[in-house]
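hi! just following up on the protien thing from before. the input was this:
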Amino acid sequence: MTRMLGRFLLPLMLWLPGQAALAGPQTLSLASDDWCPFICARGRELGGGLLVEAVQRALPEVVLKPRLMPLNRAMVDTLAGRIDGIYAPALDHRLRLSQPVLRSRACFYQLAGKTWRYAGLESLKDRRLAAIADYGYDGADFDRWLGRADRAQLDLSYGENAGRNMLAKLQRGRVDLIVEHQAVLRHLSRELGLPAEQLREAGCLEQTLPLVIGFARDRPDSKRWVERLDRGMAELRASGELARLAQRYGLTP
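and the predicted 3d structure came back as:
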């Protein structure tokens, strides 16, 4: 009986590793729009940016599949289970969020020669403001204000070219102000060849936005992905690798 059991177990032991090999490495599909230097598009694909590179280094054993799409569509596809998660989503209770990779400050910009300056939410009264739909700006009071702002006052941009469209509205005088994260506005201005003297920074939000990776909270594997990602990011931070990566993108971790 013992010899018969051994003859059965040996082929089984040989078969199981073979099946594991056939399964291949784990894959992770994360999406967002072009939001360089945090998330950068190359052609029609995401091919770089601090968050994209940091996630890959934090999970070296995982095949990362970055996907370029508007942020609002990335949210819909994540909640529907068509993709695994989102780079730098707005803080949303439907998502299970990683620890912040770093933080980013958003500011208001107007055309040069204007004198208005941000002094709290009340100062936005009677200002026509352009923002990007479904973006997070501070994860706090301003984001809540955006959610209830009068649509006659707020001009929302959508799609993969939302940032460029927002700048164009400001240049054409269709809006008084735009709100954008400092690092993103600097990068976009350089990319478009927009002279720095054409824009004036008119004050910044008090709270910085934590830049996180979000997974659908009701997905059974979301907690495991967040835990693995947080461990990997902690190792990158402790080794100094995250700081070196941030420096390469002109950012401060």
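Residues 160 and 239 are 35 Å apart (CA to CA).
Residues 1-22 have pLDDT under 50 and may be disordered.
cheers
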